[in-house]
Structure formats: C-alpha cells, structure tokens
Amino acid sequence: MDTDNLLGRFLRARRELLRPEDLGMPAGTRRRVRGLRREEVAQTAGVSTDYYVRLEQGRERHPSSQVVDALARALELEDDAATHLHELARPAPARRRPRARHEQVSPGLVRMMAAWPHTPAIVLGRRMTVLAANPLGRALFDGHAHSDDLVRLVFLDPDARAFYPDWEKAAVNTVAGLRSAAGSDYDDPRLIEVVGELSLKSETFRRLWARHDIRQKSHETKRFHHRLVGPLTLDYEALTVNSAPGQQLVVYQAEPGSPSEEALSLLGSLTA
Q1: Cα 151–154–155 angle (5° rounding)?
Q2: What residue ranges define each of the domains in the chain, with the CATH number in brackets?
Q3: pLDDT over threshold 90, residue 101
Q4: Is the pLDDT of residue 94 over 70?
Q5: I need a labelling partner for 79 at 20 to 30 A (CA). Which of 4, 71, 90, 229 fits?
C-alpha cells in the first residue's frame, strides 16, 4: 500500500466525491474532471489555487489548523473525516514499529461478556476481526466462511448479501470503519494484507476504499437475516476498550417486546 502523500490523496478523493451543485455552484456543461475542480475547492476554502494544488501534489504537507478547518468545511467532511484530515496534516513522529503481536482480549472483559447471556457482544480488533465473543455474540455471526472477520464476511462471503439485507449500506460503513480504525497507520503489514486481498477479490471494496470515507463505528440500527431464526433488527453500541487501544466492544440489543427480541431469545436457546 502506497503511504506517500496521504494528505494529498485524501484531499483528491474527497474532492472527486463532491459535485458543484453540492456547494451551490453552477454545474456547467463542459467538465472534464470528476467532482469539483481544484480551483473550486480553493475558492470555497479561501486559499489560493496554487497552494491547494501543492497540497494535493504533496509539495506542501503541513497546512495550518485554520486551513485544515477551512478545507474540511469546503469538502463537507463529517466530524470523523475532519479529525482524520487534521491527523494527516500533523502526523505523529515516526516510531520504530514494535514486532507484531497477537491481539488479546483481557480475561476480565471476556468474563463480563459471558455474564450477558441474553445480549450478543463481540470484541473487534484494529482490522475488524472478532477477537472474542460471548455465546450469543458468536451465534449471531456463526455459520459463515468468515464469521470471525467482519470485513471479509461483508465482501467475500457468498451469503453476505442474504445475511445483511442492507448490504450496500453495510459495505460502505465497513470500509469507512476499517479506515477509521486504521487511522494513518497504513504501513501496518496486516492491514496491507487485508486491503490487498480484498482489492483483488472485490471490485466494490476497491471502489469504496478509494473514496477515503472515514466513519468511526459508534451506534446504529442494523438488520440481519439469520440462517436459524430469520429476520433480526438490532441496535448496537460500539465502545472503545481503554485498556487495549484499537479494540472495540460491540453490544447488540433488540427492541423490548419486538419480534427480534423473541428471535434473539430463540437463538440463545438453540445455541445453549
């Protein structure tokens, strides 16, 4: 994975996703570029076109915080993407990468999840692999070729589109979540392996990865179609694990008294 000029590639990707009419500009009839022109972004952000071109080309890599804020507004970035843009503009000093270690979940967290017999819960690592799960959490994603890897499950599993009725939305959010979890650490060998494999095997992943969407996994209502109990509509909350940076505890719940709560109870009894 090419990690040179991350700032410039992010700016270009986000620029190409916007249309002139998104910013109240006339679209015109003879546009030879996707999305906005560089001069349109520069004008909206209040910087010179030459300066913006140098940012995209990597000849200027450290814009001020005020310029970054202006660019985030011009590109209509959401909060997570704007934070990411600031990180790219002010990268942390290079550190010697420690030898890769197997991600482990604390025994205390595993015990806590086990005490929730009616609540699916899983712990995700930096690359959205399932590091641990309680029995109901394991049962929720069981039965797939990639049950322990949510990115590969979405893009490589043959039954992914049946499991996720809103597959397109799940695909967009999964890639955005993977980029958010990775931050600017794109030289992580395991991340390079995941992105390389999926880019070769999934045109949709390749297209979505090129968008540079950034969205932290937080909370959402998600629909599933489970092979054993059928339709499920669950709310989830994703919580950061402070004792293990990069890990997230994801907890799912059904609306009380809903058919999904009954189906979740049935799933629990079937897998007890």
Answers
A1: 85
A2: 6-89 (1.10.260.40), 107-271 (3.30.450.180)
A3: no
A4: no
A5: 4
According to DSSP, the residues that pair with 237 across neighbouring strands are 219, 251
Return the residue matching tokens 């499991």: 163
φ/ψ of 114, rounded to 5, equals -65, -25
Residue 252: strand pairing partners: 236
Parallel, antiparallel or unpaired: strands 121-124 and 230-240: unpaired
Query: One-letter amino acid identity for 159?
Result: D
* Contacts (Cβ under 8 Å, ≥6 apart) of 200: none
The Cα 162–Cα 102 span in angstroms is 32
| Residue 55, amino acid | L
C-alpha to C-alpha distance for 263 and 248, rounded to whole angstroms: 25
Helix or strand (DSSP H, E) at 216: none
pLDDT band at 30 (very low <50, low <70, confident <90, very high): low
Which of 214, 220, 228, 234 has the alpha carbon at shortest distance from 268?
228
Burial class (CB within 10 angstroms; exposed 0-12, middle 13-18, buried 19+) of 151: buried
- Among candidate residues 272, 150, 270, the one with its CA nearest the CA of residue 222: 150
For the stretch 87-96, contacts whose Cβ atoms lie closer than 8 Å and that sit 24 or more positions apart, written own/partner, are: 87/183, 87/184, 88/6, 88/7, 88/10, 88/184, 89/7, 89/61, 89/62, 89/63, 89/65, 90/62, 91/6, 91/184, 92/184
What is the average per-residue pLDDT within 242-271? 94
Q: Which of 217, 210, 219, 211 is nearest to 75 (CA)?
A: 211
**Whether the Cβ atoms of residue 88 and residue 7 lie closer than 8 Å to each other:** yes
Ranked by mean pLDDT, which of 24-28, 204-208, 268-272 comes out on top? 204-208
Q: State the Cα–Cα distance between residues 40 and 54, nearest whole angstrom.
A: 15
pLDDT at 34: 73
